[in-house]
Amino acid sequence: MSGRHFIGALFALLGALCGDIQSAETQTLLEETFTAELSKDWFWGLGTWTAKDGVLRGFESGPRRHGPVKMRKLSLKDAVIECDFRLEGKATFAGIIFNGSQERGHIVHLVMGRDTLRILAHPKKGENVELLKQPNILAVGGWHHVKIEFKGETITATIDGKTITASHPCIAEEKQTFGLGGDSGGPEGEKAGALEFRSLKITG
Predict the structure, then answer these.
(1) Contact (CB, 8 A) for 86 and 144
(2) For residue 13, what are the contacts with CB-CB under 8 A and spacing of at least 6?
(3) Phi-psi bin for 14: left (phi > 0), alpha (psi -120 to 50), beta?
(4) How far is residue 42's CA from residue 99's CA, in Å, rounded to a whole number?
(5) Distance in angstroms (rounded) separating the CA atoms of residues 132 and 9
(6) CA-CA distance, 64 to 126, in Å (whole number)?
(7) Contact 76, 29 (CB under 8 A)
(8) Could you tell me if residue 141 is left (phi over 0), alpha (psi between -120 and 50 degrees) or otherwise beta?
(9) How many CB atoms within 10 Å of residue 118?
(10) Of 54, 75, 77, 81, which has the maximum CB count within 10 A?
(11) What distances in angstroms separate CA 32 from CA 1, 28, 51, 90, 186, one per listed residue?
(12) CA-CA distance, 204 to 192, in Å (whole number)?
């Protein structure tokens, strides 16, 4: 083998090794296209939800509670969650909530409202701590992008390029389920408003 061929082969080998290391460090845990009926891992919800044409759409139906919300099973610790979301009509906020076991309950909640961003921690079941609250304007009717990163006790969220962060020991706990939802506008159902999500991807 000539020196040139040897160097070329060496670079190819190094490239392959680097690719293997990257894939070992970052794995796609979930990628949802929302083009077909949801899998059974989407196990519980409030309100009415449909997955069609790449969009997961939810709105309140029946007696008003704190929905709509749609839950999915997925075990997470350190991870990156990305998706697009949209508020329609009278919808006031979209949220992504992460929970422990049924006995543990909520762990941390990112709330993305028309005029406010909030991060809520739940150190134990039934206890709420507001870690962050700051003004932010979200246009109704347009798509927004959110990226959430969990690293130990810290959550970092970037919404349309604006980054917020907060820390609490409970954030390091294992998240066993997560939910997409928020406030879609009121008990009049879809006439009041709706929440939409698309392009959900989780890596860890």
Answers:
(1) yes
(2) none
(3) alpha
(4) 14
(5) 52
(6) 21
(7) yes
(8) left
(9) 19
(10) 81
(11) 47, 11, 10, 26, 27
(12) 37
90, 73 contact by CB (below 8 A): no
Model pTM score: 0.87
Its sign, for the CA torsion 184, 189, 194, 198, is positive
Instruction: Return the structure tokens found at 166.
Output: 């907060």
Quote the CA–CA distance of 179 and 93 in Å, as a whole number. Answer: 14
Residues of the chain with pLDDT under 50: 3, 5-23
Short-list 80, 99, 108, 32, CA closest to 204: 80
Residue 37 main-chain phi, psi, to 5 deg: -55, 140
What tokens does 184 get? 């879609």
Tokens of 112: 């993305």
DSSP string, 167-185: E-GGGGSPEEEEEEEEE-S
Tens of pLDDT along 124-178? Answer: 999 999 999 999 999 999 999 999 999 999 999 999 999 999 999 999 999 999 9
CA distances from 36 to 13, 67, 86, 172, 200 (A): 40, 23, 20, 33, 14
